[in-house]
From TrEMBL:
Domain Flavoprotein per the UniProt entry, residue ranges: 6-176
Residues of the active site: C158 (proton donor)
Residues reported to bind CTP: D279, K289, P306, D307, I308, L309, F324, K338, K342
Annotated EC: 4.1.1.36, 6.3.2.5
Protein name, entry field: Coenzyme A biosynthesis bifunctional protein CoaBC
Spans annotated as Phosphopantothenoylcysteine decarboxylase: 1-190
Catalytic activity from the UniProt record: (R)-4'-phosphopantothenate + L-cysteine + CTP = N-[(R)-4-phosphopantothenoyl]-L-cysteine + CMP + diphosphate + H(+); N-[(R)-4-phosphopantothenoyl]-L-cysteine + H(+) = (R)-4'-phosphopantetheine + CO2
Family: In the N-terminal section; belongs to the HFCD (homo-oligomeric flavin containing Cys decarboxylase) superfamily.
Gene: coaBC
Pfam families for this protein: DFP, Flavoprotein
Gene3D superfamilies attached to this UniProt entry: CoaB-like, Flavin prenyltransferase-like
Cofactor note: Binds 1 FMN per subunit.
InterPro entries: CoaB-like_sf, CoaBC, DNA/pantothenate-metab_flavo_C, Flavin_trans-like, Flavoprotein
Molecular function in Gene Ontology: FMN binding; metal ion binding; phosphopantothenate--cysteine ligase activity; phosphopantothenoylcysteine decarboxylase activity
Biological source species: Dialister invisus DSM 15470
């Protein structure tokens, strides 16, 4: 939703990563943004403007004086149109030009003329990136309010390894979203979120687990980071990429999760338990792999794990405490019961038996219940969107 009806100008420079900007343009358009591309002449030698035209659905500008068929001054109209301006890849050349007030082509003149937030995505050879002149220019631009997405380290097109790689699209899209949101709804708030399913060891190779992927909790963490919260994500999975600007703590079983959540509790303003916690664990995990040759049948004795959310509810002082309920029947009634019993401020109830909801899918169907008994029900939507709604609703209650 954040991208719908938003105008994003993407400036593409003549670095070998220019082809990766095509993926960025495509992703932005898929999210509903109106994307306009300006390419430098060097960029147009690496990737044809037709590619960016096709992917953006708009004319691509390279030459300031070619095809003058509209009599508004194009670099000014694009500069004014932009809600966000992204330079990807940003070469040493464009960084140097803007830092020194040089506007001598379509891209540099438009950047100079815009009042929109400008994000540079530097991508170049390590030595070029680390050159003190480039670093000085970056420092100067940062001071002036320009935003930089750090390049990644790894294999470079020049067959060397080092810092200078074009970052993941998610990193760039996250920065853009933060600007588009512009609200900073949770600035100054410490938000602790748990995600994924706990794994209770039976022996060194087997465990009791559940079908939680962690997607729901990760989506909430991302949404909280977009709203400028100080986010800690306690994750029971390592399978998902860490969200941007989020501190990660990895745990395996319910007792590790319990310890992590309780150690963070005092300093937290908002705590959200999206993790699927195993209610039971084997009384003692075997030290060696259990051999079938030695056991015709096998009994595993289980003991109860701590109910982390319940304990947090008992200890609550200033925290806004949010739980989840994974139910298969009487979802609202069970949810209401949990709000009461676990002393929660909010609960997200999902019917995990419905197609497109619950475990290990990219969508969810949820109802938000509040401690005053009110209720909001939502249709099926992407977990990313639901995460944003949950964060908005929490912010409404906390601010
Ligand atoms: O990870 P995904 O694949 O995206 O799936 C998302 C989800 C279905 C896991 C998520 O939306 C969800 O419902 N999470 C909670 C799952 C769960 O454990 O529900 P529950 O009804 O058993 O527990 C109720 C609440 O108590 C939960 O907030 C849970 O984190 C907490 N709990 C439960 C047991 C326990 N021993 N300690 C707890 O803190």
């Amino acid at each position: 939703m954040m991208f719908i009806n938003k105008h994003i100008v993407v400036g593409v420079c003549g670095g070998i990563a220019a082809y990766k900007a095509a993926g960025l343009v495509s992703q932005l358009r898929q999210r509903g943004a109106d994307v306009h591309c300006i390419m430098t002449e060097h960029a147009a030698k690496l990737v044809t403007p037709i590619t960016f035209g096709e992917l953006s659905g708009n004319d691509v500008t390279v030459d300031m004086f070619a095809n003058i068929n509209k009599w508004d001054v194009e670099h000014i109209s694009l500069a004014q149109l932009a809600d966000v301006f992204v330079i990807a890849p940003a070469t040493a050349d464009i960084i140097g030009k803007i830092a020194n007030g040089i506007a001598d082509d379509m891209l540099s003149t438009t950047i100079m003329a815009t009042t929109a937030k400008v994000i540079f995505v530097p991508s170049m050879n390590t030595n070029m990136y680390e050159n003190p002149i480039v670093q000085e220019n970056i420092k100067k631009l940062r001071k002036l309010g320009y935003i930089f997405v750090e390049p990644e380290s790894g294999h470079l097109a020049c067959n060397a390894s080092g810092k200078g790689r074009f970052p993941s699209l998610e990193k760039i899209i996250f920065r853009i979203e933060r600007i588009l949101s512009g609200r900073q709804l949770l600035k100054g708030k410490r938000v602790v979120i748990s995600a994924g399913g706990t794994k209770e060891n039976i022996d060194p190779v087997r465990y009791i687990g559940n079908r939680s992927s962690g997607r729901m909790g990760y989506a909430i963490a991302r949404a909280a980071a977009i709203e400028a919260a100080d986010v800690v994500l306690v994750s029971c999975t390592e399978a998902l990429p860490a969200p941007e600007d989020v501190r990660m703590i990895y745990v395996r079983d319910a007792r590790e999760l319990d310890k992590a959540m309780k150690s963070l509790y005092e300093e937290s303003d908002i705590v959200i338990m999206a993790a699927a916690v195993s209610d039971y664990r084997p009384i003692a995990a075997a030290n060696q792999k259990i051999k079938k040759e030695e056991n015709d049948d096998l009994m595993i004795h289980l003991s109860l794990n701590p109910d982390i959310l319940f304990d947090l509810g008992q200890k609550k002082t200033h925290q806004f405490l949010v739980g989840f309920a994974a139910e298969t029947n009487d979802v609202i009634a069970h949810g209401r019961n949990k709000v009461e019993r676990k002393n929660l401020d909010m609960l997200i109830a999902n019917n995990v038996a419905m197609p497109g909801a619950g475990f290990n899918v990219t969508t969810n169907i949820a109802a938000i219940l509040y401690k005053d008994g009110t209720l909001q029900q939502y249709p099926k939507m992407a977990k990313e969107e639901l995460g944003k709604i949950i964060i908005e609703k929490i912010a409404e209650k906390c601010n």
